[in-house]
Automatic annotation (TrEMBL):
<comment type="similarity">
    <text>Belongs to the LysR transcriptional regulatory family.</text>
</comment>
<dbReference type="InterPro" id="IPR036390">
    <property type="entry name" value="WH_DNA-bd_sf"/>
</dbReference>
<keyword id="KW-0805">Transcription regulation</keyword>
<dbReference type="InterPro" id="IPR000847">
    <property type="entry name" value="LysR_HTH_N"/>
</dbReference>
<dbReference type="InterPro" id="IPR036388">
    <property type="entry name" value="WH-like_DNA-bd_sf"/>
</dbReference>
<keyword id="KW-0238">DNA-binding</keyword>
<protein>
    <submittedName>
        <fullName>DNA-binding transcriptional regulator OxyR</fullName>
    </submittedName>
</protein>
<feature type="domain" description="HTH lysR-type">
    <location>
        <begin position="1"/>
        <end position="58"/>
    </location>
</feature>
<dbReference type="GO" id="GO:0003700">
    <property type="term" value="F:DNA-binding transcription factor activity"/>
</dbReference>
<dbReference type="GO" id="GO:0003677">
    <property type="term" value="F:DNA binding"/>
</dbReference>
<dbReference type="InterPro" id="IPR005119">
    <property type="entry name" value="LysR_subst-bd"/>
</dbReference>
<dbReference type="Pfam" id="PF03466">
    <property type="entry name" value="LysR_substrate"/>
</dbReference>
<dbReference type="Pfam" id="PF00126">
    <property type="entry name" value="HTH_1"/>
</dbReference>
<keyword id="KW-0010">Activator</keyword>
<dbReference type="GO" id="GO:0032993">
    <property type="term" value="C:protein-DNA complex"/>
</dbReference>
<keyword id="KW-0804">Transcription</keyword>
Length: 298
């Protein structure tokens, strides 16, 4: 039994599909299937009920796969301990980012990160919050860059920056030409929102509902860029995070307006598993990101 066999078993438990599990592990399906059978022979227990339609784990298979996941995490921790002593900012690091952060933050920080940490190989993964947290728990990701939410207390975090949310309106809106608006002035407005699963949706809804605004239930966007285009088409108003707003503050058909104090904000953090030995690396990364972003926000 080796760690690679355990990786095959864990992937198969997660995906319940031989081909998909093989693709995730970058091996052929016969290789993965053969190694699972060898593992069964070695352990002298049936792990999987094989049918023509689906993969069913036996009770023993489920329990062993759960333990295998723990073993793999511990194995990775051993490697990370050695790496952290050898060189904290060297080697591979897998960073997860949410879609409302990734396209706006990465162009800002990646050049500085490469300059500051030339020996750090960054692998960037974009996904929604719930999926990123799952990948962090399972050891597939080392840390996350996302908005901090209630329920994340079991993780360690480093605050990177507080990002203001701004109002985006069509160019013919009644707020046209205003420098700032009060959140309470949104009462009665129809607000376009992102689809379920985006943490920014929940944060924006909290602010808007408190102000007396209403969500337009007829449309839910998949991205901030879709929201921007819909506002330009005079479909309503919405809130955008500061980094999603052009530096020139100009987009055809829309206007961006700041809120008066206290303005709505979201807290962007670097999130990691408590006890991670890569904390020195996270500290260095956080310092570079925070410095770069704060210069932009200010």
């Amino acid at each position: 039994m080796n760690l690679r066999d355990l990786e095959y078993l864990v992937a198969l438990q997660e995906l319940k599909h031989f081909r998909k599990a093989a693709e995730k592990c970058f091996v052929s399906q016969p290789t993965l299937s053969g190694q699972i059978r060898k593992l069964e022979d070695e352990l002298d227990v049936i792990l999987i009920e094989r049918t023509s339609r689906k993969v069913l784990f036996t009770p023993a298979g489920d329990q062993i796969a759960d333990q295998a996941r723990t073993v793999l995490l511990e194995s990775k921790a051993i490697k990370e301990i050695a790496k952290s002593y050898a060189s904290p900012t060297a080697g591979a690091i897998h960073i997860g980012l949410i879609p409302t952060v990734a396209p706006y933050l990465l162009p800002l920080i990646v050049p500085s990160m490469k300059q500051q940490f030339p020996d750090l190989d960054m692998y960037l993964h974009e996904n929604q919050t719930n999926e990123l947290l799952k990948q962090l728990d399972e050891g597939e990701l080392d840390c996350l860059l996302l908005a901090y939410l209630p329920g994340m207390e079991k993780y360690g975090h480093i605050e990177l920056y507080k990002e203001p949310l701004e109002l985006i309106i069509p160019s013919g809106h009644r707020f046209k030409g205003r420098d700032r608006v009060d959140l309470s002035e949104l009462r009665g407005e129809k607000v376009l929102m992102l689809e379920d699963g985006h943490c920014l949706r929940d944060q924006a809804m909290d602010y808007c509902f408190t102000a007396g605004a209403e969500e337009d239930q007829s449309f839910k966007a998949t991205s901030l860029e879709t929201l921007r285009h819909m506002i330009a088409a005079d479909a309503g108003v919405t809130l955008l995070p500061h980094l999603a707003i052009p530096r020139t503050r100009f987009t055809e058909g829309v206007e961006y307006i700041k809120f008066v104090e206290p303005e709505p904000t979201r807290k962007i953090v670097l999130l990691y598993r408590k006890g991670s030995v890569r904390r020195p690396c996270f500290n260095d990364i956080a310092q570079v990101i925070g410095k770069k972003v704060m210069a932009t926000i200010v």
